[in-house]
Design a protein that fits this description.
This protein has 346 residues and is an alpha/beta fold. Helix content is 34%, strand content 23%. The radius of gyration is 20 Å and the shape is globular. The termini are far apart.
Length: 346
């Protein structure tokens, strides 16, 4: 017998909501979009005329019958909105980053446990095709014992834009925007590092937030470098991995975001396939292998989230793992401020 779809509401109607959440909520049978809160009344009512519209998140959380709330509002209100949602007995998905400080994250985890509700964070890059490819290469021992792992999220945006992600005093800047993606992937692959050395800098004229970071995570016999800047105008390096058997190089970004922006719905199995010209290369002393990129699958986050709510299974991203991400961001900022390598004790 098919389960009744989960009534789902979305807070915010910006890029994240329209690109990374609503396409899945409206195309997967596990969910039913029932409400959106946004000040953009005309846009919401035009795009979703049969969905309840609320001008404020507060009204939605109090009056909507949604079982699940997806919060895509600015980072600095993640805590207060998630807290209110949980207090109103709603399951919660928060866009990354989870919160902007450790204390708030711990409070939300405690509250969700007390209310027996599912709390998860949308670390969708666990389901990037290139990351799944890297994970598979490592698991199959095709690179050997790793010595150097580099992961990049570089862009060319030399001029500051008037967007909350770049302007917010609390939770703004690319360390809270792009950093969670890279940190989460490193934690999935390698676990908690022994130490961290970080440069978190403001480099653009007129910028008030971190717009360059270089994080070095220290592991036994291996160095992991996570890097993002806004001055990369050429081809974007994504991964550079070196080990005792060879190395893997990958350029370009996973295509799922671009496909979703273009209006491609995740209804066909091949919707996220990467083009062959973007495949990475595995090098060793004798030959070069072109490695077919694994199929990306953001939809698996949502189907696993549905299971977590209906079947009480583990959520696809636990709040505890997302909080570890925030702890490393705080350590990175402190390492950069002091100009020192800091031991990770969590």
């Amino acid at each position: 017998m098919a389960l009744v779809p989960i009534k789902t509401a979305v807070i915010g109607y910006g890029f994240s909501a329209k690109t990374f959440h609503i396409p899945f909520i409206t195309s997967l049978p596990e969910f039913e979009l029932v409400a959106i809160s946004s000040s953009q009344r005309d846009a919401v009512e035009h795009d979703w005329p049969v969905v309840d519209h609320y001008l404020s998140a507060n009204d939605l959380l109090i009056n909507s019958d949604a079982e699940l709330v997806i919060i895509t509002a600015p980072n600095d209100v993640h805590f207060c909105l998630a807290k209110q949602a949980l207090e109103n007995n709603k399951h919660v998905v928060l866009e990354k980053p989870f919160v902007t400080n450790i204390t708030d994250g711990e409070a939300l985890i405690k509250l969700a446990a007390e209310k027996s509700l599912t709390l998860s964070v949308y670390h969708n890059r666990r389901w990037d095709g290139d990351f799944l490819t890297v994970k598979k290469l490592i698991e199959e021992d095709r690179i050997g014992e790793l010595r150097s792992f580099e992961s990049h999220f570089d862009r060319f945006r030399p001029n500051v834009r008037q967007r909350w992600r770049e302007q917010a005093a609390n939770g703004g800047g690319i360390l809270f925007d792009l950093g969670p993606h890279l940190i989460d992937q490193a934690l999935i692959l390698f676990g908690v590092p022994n130490a961290i050395t970080a440069q978190c800098l403001i480099m653009r004229e007129g910028s008030t937030n971190v717009d360059y970071f270089n994080l070095v995570l220290h592991y036994p016999n291996q160095v992991t470098t996570l890097h993002a800047d806004l001055f990369s105008a050429g081809p974007n390096k994504r991964f550079s991995i070196k080990g005792t058997k060879g190395s893997y190089e990958k350029y370009g970004l996973d295509p799922q975001e671009a496909r979703l922006i273009a209006g491609v719905l995740p209804v066909d199995a091949s919707w996220s396939d990467e083009s062959t010209d973007q495949y990475g290369c595995l090098y060793n002393a004798e030959e070069i292998d072109i490695v077919t990129t694994e199929r990306g699958c953001y939809q698996l986050y949502f189907t696993a989230m549905a299971d977590a709510i209906r079947l009480k299974t583990k959520p696809p991203v636990t709040a505890e793992s997302a909080l570890l991400n925030i702890k490393l961001i705080e350590l990175a900022m402190e390492s950069s401020r002091l100009g020192e390598t800091l031991t990770v004790t969590l």
